């Protein structure tokens, strides 16, 4: 009853709370406040002195946290510009953790965060060397928001800590930070990269809600930049293995026919590895009958890439279960480490990317 009483008092004092429908029909609360003063009032001690000055801060703690937790990022930053108390609340990591998880967690991994921290360290060192501290956080709000009254560039107190989730979120959202990730079917689905996933540096464009992907050079090729990469073609690197290093496979002993895998492959020794989707197949001597199959107990593991036609040199490859490292040659490329796919989600992503025609 106390919560309802404060709630209706808030509404009657000139504030409004509206329920809006956003993407996919998911409801989200948007708080529109009409303040009678330029600042938030602290807890009202004498109601007679302030008969019409009910503050959002007068809400019970649980209700206020519930409201702030339902605000979209831009609205949460708006609330942070109202007063010092709300600024502290709206910059807290526990509010931004859910926002970050909802939008970025699937494609941004620990490697990207470490790279961002490294750049912050370099900026701090550069600022100390020039005796002019850098302002790495002035751009996110000034370039993203249409609210003319919100300009924190001249307000150092409004700038969030550089190691906060709020700053990390807007570093990604603004598009000024290139972060490492992986791209499926690179270069607009080039036939030579179908059902593969390669390392790249990504840059977000909030206007088109898509990304630029910057791929490292392949041998004599220069850096390739692909524009308009959609969210469904991206993922955070599942492993911390650099693109030119061999992944140490830890699943070879357990592999058996029917297992879904990703295999490192590169055209020659100068190229970085890409991850290619395949399935563990039966040996040539096995008829595929589960009652008689012994493929899981022999040393040779056959990898099948059924996106290629029967008879194609890319259709099958054999590796040694016990001594496999990198196998191959300049004609057929080099097969590196193997990663077993253990979730339906990972497998379904590859199936959605399946080519419409069988490859030669």
Give average pLDDT, whole number.
79
Structural shape: elongated
- Portion in beta strands: 15-25%
Instruction: Give helix and strand order, one letter per element, not per position.
Output: HEEHHHHHHHEHEEEEEEEEEEH
Fraction in helix: 25-40%
What does this structure look like?
The chain contains ten helices and 13 strands. By secondary structure, it is of the alpha+beta class. Among the domains are: 64-104, no CATH class; 106-117 and 163-236, no CATH class; 259-353, no CATH class. The strands form two sheets. Strands 3, 4, 5, 6, 7, 8, 9, 10, 11, 12 and 13 form an eleven-stranded antiparallel β-sheet that branches. A two-stranded antiparallel sheet has the order 1-2. α3 (73-80) packs antiparallel against α4 (84-90). The longest helix has 20 residues, at 110-129. It is elongated, with a radius of gyration of 27 Å. It comes from Physcomitrium patens (Spreading-leaved earth moss). This is F-box domain-containing protein. Residues 53-99 form the F-box domain. InterPro entries: F-box-like_dom_sf (IPR036047), F-box_dom (IPR001810).
């Amino acid at each position: 009853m106390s919560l309802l009483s404060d709630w209706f008092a808030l509404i009657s004092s000139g504030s409004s709370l509206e329920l809006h429908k956003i993407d996919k029909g998911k409801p989200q609360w948007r708080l529109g406040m009409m303040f009678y003063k330029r600042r938030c009032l602290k807890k009202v001690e004498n109601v007679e002195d302030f008969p019409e000055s009910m503050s959002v801060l007068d809400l019970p703690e649980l209700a206020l946290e519930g409201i702030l937790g339902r605000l979209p990022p831009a609205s949460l930053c708006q609330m942070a510009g109202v007063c010092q108390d709300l600024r502290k609340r709206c910059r807290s990591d526990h509010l931004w953790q859910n926002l970050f998880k909802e939008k970025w967690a699937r494609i941004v991994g620990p490697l990207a965060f470490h790279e961002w921290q490294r750049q912050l360290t370099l900026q701090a060192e550069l600022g100390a060397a020039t005796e002019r501290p850098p302002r790495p956080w002035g751009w996110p709000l000034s370039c993203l928001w249409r609210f003319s009254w919100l300009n924190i560039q001249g307000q150092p107190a409004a700038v969030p800590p550089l190691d906060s989730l709020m700053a990390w979120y807007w570093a990604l959202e603004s598009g000024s930070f290139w972060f490492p990730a992986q791209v499926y079917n690179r270069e607009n689905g080039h036939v030579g990269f179908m059902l593969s996933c390669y390392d790249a540096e990504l840059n977000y464009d909030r206007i088109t809600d898509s990304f630029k992907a910057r791929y490292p050079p392949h041998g004599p090729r220069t850096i390739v930049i692909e524009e308009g990469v959609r969210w469904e073609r991206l993922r955070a690197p599942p492993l911390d293995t650099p693109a030119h290093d061999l992944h140490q496979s830890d699943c070879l002993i357990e592999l058996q026919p029917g297992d879904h895998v990703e295999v490192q492959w590169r055209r020659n020794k100068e190229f970085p590895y890409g991850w290619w989707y395949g399935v563990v197949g039966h040996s040539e001597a096995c008829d595929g009958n589960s009652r008689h199959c012994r493929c899981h107990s022999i040393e040779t593991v056959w990898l099948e890439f059924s996106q290629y036609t029967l008879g194609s040199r890319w259709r099958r490859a054999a590796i040694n279960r016990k001594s496999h490292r990198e196998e191959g040659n300049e004609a057929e490329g080099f097969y590196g480490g193997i990663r077993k796919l253990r979730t339906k989600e990972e497998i379904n992503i590859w199936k959605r990317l399946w080519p419409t025609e069988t490859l030669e």
